[in-house]
Amino acid sequence: MMTASIGQNVLVLNRLWQAVHVCSVRRAFTLLYAGHAHVVHEEGDSYQTLNFEKWHDISQDYCGADVVSTVAFKVRVPRVIVLLFYDRFPKKEVKFTRNNIFDRDKHTCQYCGKVFPREMLNLDHVVPRDRGGQMSWENIVCSCIPCNTRKGNRTPSEAGMRLLRQPKRPRWRPSLHVTFAKASEDSWRNFLDLSCWHVEVG
Ligand SMILES: [Zn+2]
User: Fold this and answer.
1) pTM of the entire structure?
2) 183 is in which domain, residue-wise?
């Protein structure tokens, strides 16, 4: 008989110990049992990686409720596993979205350098649209409304304004969008960058 903890999630790390996925407990056990993953077990200040057999062994001394058990069998539910073979990042790129542009530019107007709440920021076409400016990572920046108005339908040099930095596609960061509620799982915290991009990993 399985306990309720089977409904919980397990954080999956790739070989570089980067969070790449969240899977079901059932899936985690399948990966562990097949030898595709090890359990990442926090021991004081360090982590041990344990194969299924060792994890099963140390589970016998464990008294918590988060176990999968039968009359003859008991194994603790892992919270984090690390994949042994898979080290590809999910192929999806950082999505080109309004929120991700705000994140990339850290809510900072790229002209005056001030930080604003989201609702006071616009997306600015560096090269105006009617001059062939694309809707792209390289041509869209975060701008406050006064700067956006001042710049109008001009290039920065025409407007006598200067970009803080040249806009670029953000470097891929293989992190998950995990809400704080889910990440309240303490054992996950060290592996999650909570200021991560909103990337769906499927
Ligand atoms: Zn501004």
Assistant:
1) 0.48
2) 4-90+174-189
